[in-house]
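Quick review question:
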């Protein structure tokens, strides 16, 4: 990745400014803009997130926002209400208040003497979410959006639930992350002596988000709010949707392309939860240049050719040895002029008692008793490009599943889109789930996870109105797997794995389940097979990844990362541990020092679904000279047959003295989960 130091426009930085809101609160903003902007106004680009513009995300902000400013834009980073140095309390994700504030922020930006009155929004994850949500509110000045690693469906495609299953891998982990992050103090350098009062108000009033999330286990109005899939027509401005196959939010891209009726574009690489110029697995691309082409067309009216290009450009990954990390994933770029496309057609394979065939065989019945540790090889739900995050060899979990394997393929096959599996099943309990995996099996037996999906069987007909199973009754259910672009080599085999457990991604059913699967015409796999297009070979290459000069930092302590698992054969206890110490950094310009570390621990015991436990711990230090603060947060989640049980603890220290401590323990009834 190259650092670019020469730009068409000289820029200046406004380190902190206040955006006033109608209710008297202020939001803190950092702005980069051309030095001549007040005499020659420019369009503006807004990123609107809760991750603090002056410490945690500042190093990456400096690689991106000054770059846009150097090409003639005012680029603005705003801390949400209740985060960073902004006033107020952050009560949850994506609330109406957050959107209301965004409308005021955009109107404020459009009124500034350095702005032409035209604004775009860009953001990854939270900022990608609210870019879509704000677009659906249609502020007059908002002309276009770039949304990365985001979702259009907060219930089915976020870190809380999947297919009606509670995501044990990430729901508490993310809630614990926000519990600790929301407890960080404002910086007295900007807010003055009010910092302590603001800090204590946040500590006392900010709730643990996990309680609200657990209290809505169905797809109710809580989740429909902020899900633009409920009404795609509300979005009237152009949308550029971006993500990667290793990112859990990739499903939103084909869904947005199919659902929106505005000019739109999709880009899917091999990447994890990152901007493509930092893409891991590689190859990374010159994504900032692609952003400029989008902004120049929609915000400046410059013809850049973006509307003459294919609607979707995607990286087709090739068969590769299963690894927890790829520096680069082999493959090639392809493109589709529209989505959905007639260039992708379903190829059906039937699940038979011994294999995966293109012709059905006589009906059979297979049974599996769920093994509680099945799924430990699934990898991290939301990878960021680090080591040991991606799924490893699936042979062990294949052995804990019902598996259906095809004959070796005579020719390579490309798939692009959503694989789907229909299953005729019965369970011996009223509450059960099914996990389905699609794997690419090499001639040597190595099994690489291609895609996967979950379904809570009580949600077989509806995520809004689940109903218990009638034990022993046969049901035909549909499981949609995550979107994928993959080329399987000749000589490799497809494999479908089915299991009634998938820990820690799926919180286990309250009782051990024996799942019966009935083979025949009703149990089948539909693969979205793509035909090659001559145009694929003529696609223009992306530019080299670029970056503006980074924020000067001193590394006080180097970061470290450990991901490990262990299984005690005697006790049957399995434990998955992830520890990340981000190290300690000193910001040269401000003198601020920042460090954070956290540990996530997932445990379960053989044969006992009620032993499932998630524990998360966070430790954050922020200080400058005599001003030193520390946050310690921990969360624990378990369940009995009828309830989820959660305890959240939070402590805050100033100069080594504890100034705040609280413990919040609560129980939420299990609602068909």
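Suggested answer, residue by residue:
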């Amino acid at each position: 990745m190259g650092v670019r130091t020469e730009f068409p426009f000289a820029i200046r930085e406004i380190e902190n400014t206040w955006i006033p809101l109608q209710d008297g609160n202020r939001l803190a903003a950092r702005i980069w803009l051309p030095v001549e902007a007040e005499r020659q106004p420019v369009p503006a680009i807004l990123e609107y997130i809760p991750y603090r513009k002056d410490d945690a995300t500042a190093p990456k902000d400096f690689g991106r926002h000054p770059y846009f400013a150097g090409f003639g834009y005012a680029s603005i980073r705003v801390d949400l209400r209740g985060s960073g140095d902004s006033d107020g309390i952050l009560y949850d994700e994506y609330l109406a208040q957050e959107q209301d504030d965004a409308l005021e922020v955009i109107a404020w930006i459009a009124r500034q003497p350095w702005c032409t009155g035209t604004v775009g929004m860009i953001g990854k994850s939270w900022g990608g979410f609210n870019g879509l949500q704000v677009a659906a509110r249609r502020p007059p000045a908002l002309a276009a959006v770039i949304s990365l690693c985001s979702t259009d469906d907060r219930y089915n495609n976020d870190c809380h639930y999947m297919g009606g299953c509670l995501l044990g891998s990430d729901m508490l982990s993310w809630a614990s992350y926000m519990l600790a992050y929301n407890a960080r103090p404002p910086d007295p350098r900007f807010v003055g002596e009010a910092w302590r009062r603001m800090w204590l108000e946040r500590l006392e009033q900010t709730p643990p988000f996990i309680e609200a999330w657990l209290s809505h286990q169905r797809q109710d109005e809580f989740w429909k709010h902020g899900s633009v899939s409920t009404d795609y027509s509300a979005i009237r401005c152009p949308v550029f949707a971006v993500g990667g196959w290793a990112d859990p939010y990739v499903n939103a891209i084909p869904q947005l392309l199919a659902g929106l009726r505005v000019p739109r574009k999709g880009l899917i690489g091999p990447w994890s939860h990152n901007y493509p110029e930092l893409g891991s697995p590689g190859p990374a691309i010159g994504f900032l240049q692609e952003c400029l082409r989008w902004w120049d067309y929609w915000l400046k009216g410059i013809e850049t050719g973006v509307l003459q290009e294919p609607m979707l450009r995607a990286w087709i990954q090739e068969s590769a040895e299963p690894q927890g990390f790829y520096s680069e994933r082999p493959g090639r770029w392809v493109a589709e002029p529209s989505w959905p496309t007639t260039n992708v057609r379903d190829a059906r394979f039937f699940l038979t008692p011994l294999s995966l065939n293109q012709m059905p065989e006589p009906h059979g019945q297979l049974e599996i008793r769920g093994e509680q540790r099945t799924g430990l090889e699934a990898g991290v739900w939301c990878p960021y490009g680090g080591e040991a995050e991606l799924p490893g060899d699936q042979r062990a979990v294949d052995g804990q599943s019902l598996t259906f394997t095809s004959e070796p393929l005579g020719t390579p096959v490309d798939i692009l889109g959503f694989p789907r599996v229909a299953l005729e099943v019965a369970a011996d309990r009223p509450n059960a789930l099914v996990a389905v995996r699609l794997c690419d099996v090499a001639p040597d037996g190595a099994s690489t996870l291609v895609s996967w999906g979950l379904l809570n069987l009580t949600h077989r007909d509806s995520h809004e109105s689940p109903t218990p199973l009638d034990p022993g009754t046969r049901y035909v259910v549909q499981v949609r797997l995550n979107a994928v672009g993959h080329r399987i080599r000749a000589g490799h085999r497809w494999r479908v794995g089915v299991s009634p457990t998938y820990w820690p991604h799926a919180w286990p059913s309250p009782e051990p389940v024996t799942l019966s699967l009935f083979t025949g015409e009703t149990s089948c796999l539909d693969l979205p097979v793509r035909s090659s297009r001559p145009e694929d070979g003529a696609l223009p290459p992306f530019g080299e990844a670029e970056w503006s000069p980074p924020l000067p930092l001193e590394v006080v302590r180097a970061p470290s990362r450990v991901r490990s698992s262990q299984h005690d054969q005697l006790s049957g206890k399995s434990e998955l541990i992830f520890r990340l110490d981000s190290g300690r950094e000193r910001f040269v310009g401000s003198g601020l020092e920042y460090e954070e570390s956290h540990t996530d621990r997932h445990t379960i015991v053989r044969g006992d679904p009620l032993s499932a436990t998630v524990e998360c711990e966070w430790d954050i230090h922020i200080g400058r000279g005599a001003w030193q603060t520390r946050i310690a947060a921990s969360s624990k989640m378990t369940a009995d047959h009828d309830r989820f049980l959660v305890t959240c603890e939070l402590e805050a220290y100033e100069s080594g003295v504890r100034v705040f401590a609280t413990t919040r323990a609560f129980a939420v009834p299990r609602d068909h989960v």
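Why it works: The longest strand covers residues 608-624. The radius of gyration is 25 Å.
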